[in-house]
Amino acid sequence: MELASIYSVQMDYIQSLVRYEREGFVYGFYQGKTFHSVFQPIVDRLGQVLAFEGLVRIWDEHGKSINPGDYFSSMTPGDEASVIATLLCGKLHSINLAHTAYRHSKLFINVSPSVFTLLANYRQSIEHLIYRLRCLRMVSSQIIYEITEFEESDLAGILQGKAYLEQYGIKTALDDYGACYATRERAMKIRAPYLKIDRSYVGDAKFVQQAVALARRIGAKTIAEGIETREQFEMCRESGVDYFQGYWIAKPMLSQRLDQYQPLVL
């Protein structure tokens, strides 16, 4: 199967992997594994919802839980299985969010460089994505693709893809800033509209302040990931962080429970 045809108008292979549950919610089935959406809110300085990040829970054919990080890291970046699984998760998140009271919120979706390049450089693929969003009564400006770990050789394709996606109103976020690949230099080159500060730094006031200064320089909004205590939240807020995500705000929730979520009053 050619990667360019995976997500095309003529053959929406990803849609064939979607299974429907009650009330319009969906899960995915691929290579003997099932994929379910969960959502974690991203809130502003007052606790109001900006967006939800779509995350995935995976089970094997015996009902045993599989760590999503281990699952995706075990794949060769850019191979067919990796692309299909990533696109499937994005589709599940979009459909499931559209069936909740938060259907008009923004949706952050993790996208590897290979998938990013696929969607961004094949007009047929991205036009089909816009069509599917329209069917869900969603708009492209709700979607934010999180750029995950990538090699230096992927940078040119990411920059090209980012510019192309922006023509359709789809924005990007640089994930895990401060960890591994997500360096200051790459943040300056990519200039994504959102800079997500890695969870390992949300207790480091100096680093957070430097990240906020960098984000303002490149015209980005900051999101502190992995907030687990009020102390972390208060420090990040005082340091100028725009948005917050983590267990202290709310744990990831199944699609069917999202309507019950009540934002914090901060």
Can you give a write-up of this model?
The protein is of the alpha/beta class. It has one domain: TIM Barrel. The protein is built from eight helices and twelve strands. Strands 1, 2, 3, 4, 5, 6, 7, 8, 9, 10, 11 and 12 form a twelve-stranded mixed beta sheet that branches. Helix 3 packs across helix 4 and helix 3 crosses helix 5. The longest helix is centred in the middle third of the chain and has 19 residues. The N and C termini lie far apart (50 Å). One of its GO terms (molecular function) is cyclic-guanylate-specific phosphodiesterase activity. InterPro entries: Cyclic-di-GMP_PDE-like, EAL_dom, EAL_sf. Pfam families: EAL. This is EAL domain-containing protein. It comes from Vibrio ouci.
How would the blueprint of this fold be written?
Layout lengths: L17 E3 L5 E5 L2 E11 L5 E11 L5 E2 L1 H6 L6 H19 L7 E6 L1 H9 L1 H13 L7 E5 L7 H13 L3 E7 L6 H7 L3 E4 L7 H14 L2 E4 L5 H9 L4 E2 L8 E2 L12
Parallel strand pairs: 4-6, 6-7, 7-8, 8-9, 9-10, 10-11
Antiparallel strand pairs: 1-2, 2-3, 3-4, 3-12, 4-5
Organism: Vibrio ouci
GO molecular function, one term: cyclic-guanylate-specific phosphodiesterase activity
Protein name: EAL domain-containing protein
